[in-house]
Amino acid sequence: MDKRYSRNNEGGDRAHVGSGAVPMPLHRPWTASLVRAAILVGLALLLSAAINPLLGRRVHWDWTAPLGVALFLLLAVALRRRWV
């Protein structure tokens, strides 16, 4: 069995016997995780840039830029490990 698939304590597949379920890989590919994270962070920055002026405030890009990078990296890892 491939190491990417989880096992229970007895060493069998995670899927229940007779359920017909296919075991899920523990990790997504990095490319898929990075693309999804880039799309989500891009949408968050776009919404921030669009909504913030409507509320009478400016977007503070001096803290938004590092926050966007940190959010991108954390989200990429979370998507890869299937935390979200």
Mean pLDDT: 76
Rough shape? elongated
Q: Whole-number radius of gyration?
A: 19 Å
Order of helices and strands: HH
Low-confidence stretches: 7-13
Number of helices: 2
Level of helix content? 40-55%
**Strand fraction:** under 5%
Q: Distance between the terminal alpha carbons, to the nearest Å?
A: 25 Å
Number of strands: 0
Describe this structure in words.
Helix 1 (30-54) packs antiparallel against helix 2 (61-80). Residues 7-13 have low confidence and may be disordered. By secondary structure, this protein is an all-alpha fold. The chain has a domain at 30-80. The protein starts with 29 loop residues before the first helix and ends with a helix. The protein has two helices and no strands.
How are the SSEs ordered, and which strands pair?
Elements: H1 30-54, H2 61-80
Helix pairs in contact: 1-2
Q: Could you name the key traits of this structure?
A:
mainly alpha, 2 helices, 54% helix, 84 residues
Summary of the model, kept short:
By secondary structure, the protein is mainly alpha-helical.
